[in-house]
Amino acid sequence: MAKVELLVECPHCGYSDRLDSFKLLRDPWRYSFYEVRRLQCPKCGGTFNYYYGVSPKGELSTFTIRFKTAQA
Ligand SMILES: [Zn+2]
Asked: Out of the domains of life, which is the source (predicted)?
């Protein structure tokens, strides 16, 4: 059975890699049925929130919300 690797794509530069290659900036927290992680891209340094969860209908849902870069 193939091991499923969770891929995350940086919303700033499009860099895509496994979740654990992004820097976790704070402990994950819950938002509704989502688990939210504040991540930093190892390539461009951009930060974003990564949402991961299974909806009440049983569907896997992930999305990202970007922040402005630290220089803003
Ligand atoms: Zn990036």
From this structure: Archaea
